[in-house]
Specification:
single chain; mainly alpha; Four Helix Bundle (Hemerythrin (Met), subunit A); 5 helices
Length: 132
């Protein structure tokens, strides 16, 4: 396994899927708040939930997750493990990662809702893939 690919067994896949669900729950809780700071936190956690779900799918289907500086590699791996439509959710989420994690601009509720929705769809797709 290369340094960019980290092998995953069934236990690791289960942990990442539980991470995805827990983070999505947290994002939805923060999204319900009235403060733009809560929405920023919701958006940031949504990105993390999507990455965890992607790791679970890739680990389940491919036997590894991507651990690289470029999230494009993770999107490519998810496209291989699932479908382009599933990978599109991750693509949107990782495109927002820097802004949400390191930026100093607060998102609107609508912007945060959009990211939480992408995370929810990716987590749901991942759960379905892991069940099959």
């Amino acid at each position: 396994m290369s340094s960019r690919r980290h092998q995953m067994d069934a236990s690791a896949v289960g942990i990442r899927m539980k991470d995805a669900h827990t983070r999505l729950d947290s994002a939805e809780f923060q999204l319900a708040g009235d403060s733009p700071h809560e929405w920023k936190h919701a958006a940031e956690i949504a990105v993390s939930a999507g990455i965890a779900a992607s790791d679970a799918v890739c680990g389940h289907v491919l036997g590894y997750k991507i651990a690289a500086d470029s999230h494009r590699d993770a999107v490519t791996a998810l496209r291989e493990a699932a479908t382009s439509s599933v990978a599109k959710h991750l693509e949107v989420l990782v495109a927002a990662k820097s802004t949400q994690s390191y930026g100093d601009r607060l998102p609107t509720r609508s912007e945060a809702e959009r990211l939480v929705l992408h995370a929810r769809r990716l987590v749901e797709a991942a759960a379905n893939i892991l069940r099959s």
